[in-house]
Design brief:
The protein is mainly α. The protein has 10 helices and 7 strands.
């Protein structure tokens, strides 16, 4: 077999592999998403059980600092030296929890804290790193850690994407989830200084929305137009599906001055997102 024939054979095999992979992905992903939704939809509305998030709260208090620009920054360097073991211990405790025995509010808080704590844990394992997108857990062609199975809950291996897109978003259908989960990027809604609990859920969801929308990371006025976070483009369906519905959502949480300035706006002129790490 000459070089041309070998090259042709290589591309035939590669093309076939890519086709099979695409078919498996397209066929498997919806089923996987539906099975996760079914697996974790169950809850106990009568449950008064609460999860102790004190360890996570202590880490947030010690290593997350609100900035004057509205961005909460994480001291990853100090956290890696002083708190990494405590974080891993907290994550182990969460993964041993029977989440379906909780009521819905406690469940929501559980998933948000698990997502955020694991994201910080992944950053610490690779720190220093300029952006979470540069963390590759499964090879040089991966972008970020989101698709890798990084936690196990009730015997099911889950990725960060599973938690956000196949559990939290489809089960609760709550647009404010985007202000709760934190991807460790500058343009992401803040990693809040308070751990989520069932009792504080509504308060923290509203705070996350207000803090983000009223910061330049969420919305800015430029050249007579509105430039919004790409979150409102990527997940427009969660905010009603149209620019009009996105703007209505934004106005709901906008401070009076901002709400007045965008009261007549009918469209968003552009979207931005900065993936730099939310570190000191």
């Amino acid at each position: 077999m000459n070089a041309c024939q070998r090259a042709s054979r290589y591309f035939e095999v590669a093309s076939a592999w890519l086709l099979v992979s695409l078919v498996v992905f397209l066929a498997g992903s919806p089923v996987h998403a539906q099975s996760l939704k079914q697996k974790f939809t169950a809850a106990n509305p009568a449950s008064t059980k609460t999860i102790d998030h004190a360890a996570w709260q202590a880490l947030l208090t010690a290593y997350v600092r609100p900035g004057r620009d509205g961005l909460n920054r994480v001291d990853y360097a100090r956290l890696k030296k002083q708190g990494a073991r405590k974080l891993k211990a907290y994550l182990e405790e969460l993964q041993g929890t029977d989440v379906t025995s909780l009521n819905k509010r406690e469940q929501f808080a559980y998933w948000v804290n698990l997502y955020n704590a694991k994201t910080v844990d992944i950053i610490l394992d690779h720190y220093p790193v300029p952006s979470i997108r540069e963390i590759r857990l499964s090879g040089m062609f991966s972008v970020g850690p989101w698709k890798e199975k990084v936690v196990t809950v009730k015997g099911v291996k889950l990725s960060l994407d599973d938690i956000e897109h196949r559990i939290l978003r489809p089960i609760w259908r709550e647009p404010r989830v985007h202000y709760a989960v934190n991807c460790a990027a500058v343009s992401c809604p803040n990693l809040q200084t308070k751990a989520f609990t069932g009792a504080t859920l509504e308060k923290l969801l509203d705070k996350g929305a207000r803090d983000y929308i009223n910061s330049p990371r969420g919305l800015k006025l430029r050249g007579g137009g509105i430039v919004a976070s790409k979150i409102y483009e990527w997940f427009a369906a969660d905010f009603g599906g149209t620019e009009k519905s996105v703007l209505a959502h934004i106005r709901r949480y906008a401070a009076p001055e901002l709400a007045a300035r965008i009261s007549d706006a009918a469209r968003i002129s552009g979207y931005e997102y900065h993936w730099g790490l939310n570190g000191n």
